[in-house]
Amino acid sequence: MIVADFEPVSLNDYPGKVSAVVFISGCNLLCRFCYNRELVLKKLVKDKTEDFFEYLILNKIKYVAITGGEPLFHPHILDFFEKLKKLGVSIKLDTNGFSYAKFKKALEKSLLNYVAMDVKGFSDEDIRFITRKNYRFRDFLKSYELLKSYDIPFELRITMWKDFDKEDLLHFLSFVDRNDKIILQKPIFDKPFLDKRFASFVRNVDFERNIKIFQECFSNVVVRNFV
């Protein structure tokens, strides 16, 4: 299975474009605040790949945002990218930055046109806690530095799952560019978290305070999912 589901039209997922959105099943993380349980745990059993390509070709879709789960976790994702490129499709990839080898190949083959990379935390401890996997900050940084070496527009997405200290951001800022596009978003409370007990913790986060701190440290901060 490649395509677990797809959204025919989106005005929000590919910056500046009207796109289709593809959801890829499976993930290498178990983020506590994740609300895509069916995708992460591979509980969507119907393969909609043929339906998607039929829709894509019939409607001459030229922009596709690919998300998950973690798209790069899928063993055949590079073939999927290449098939889209042969159809003249511009690809926006959502990734957590922890699948370096496939990410590198996708960039080397010029398969990606826009990248949204998640920042799960600014320390090894935070990353391990929130993802429940043994990744480190340097693993994210390796993918970030690779991405910066290519002339591809990108954004760094941060879900505000805790109250971040300014010291956290200054540490982060010592590795990244203060002019990078930072996307701040609240967790989605409409669906159960992967860790159901975590919702009560996140509801106590001071989102307004977090936004202010990020705006003090970065020059290009965009806030989403904030009502």
From TrEMBL:
By its UniProt entry, which InterPro entries does this protein fall under?
Aldolase_TIM (IPR013785), NrdG2 (IPR012840), Radical_activat_CS (IPR001989), Radical_SAM_PqqE_MftC-like (IPR050377), rSAM (IPR007197), rSAM_sf (IPR058240)
Source domain of life? Bacteria
Membrane-spanning residues: none
Alphabetically sorted, this entry's keywords are: 4Fe-4S, Iron, Iron-sulfur, Metal-binding, Oxidoreductase, S-adenosyl-L-methionine
EC class: oxidoreductase
Q: What CDD domains does UniProt report for this protein, alphabetically?
A: Radical_SAM
Cofactor(s) needed? [4Fe-4S] cluster
- Radical SAM core domain ranges (all copies): 12-220
* A Pfam family annotated for this UniProt entry: Radical_SAM
Supply the EC number(s).
Answer: 1.97.1.-
Tell me its family.
Answer: Belongs to the organic radical-activating enzymes family.
What's the protein name?
Answer: Anaerobic ribonucleoside-triphosphate reductase activating protein
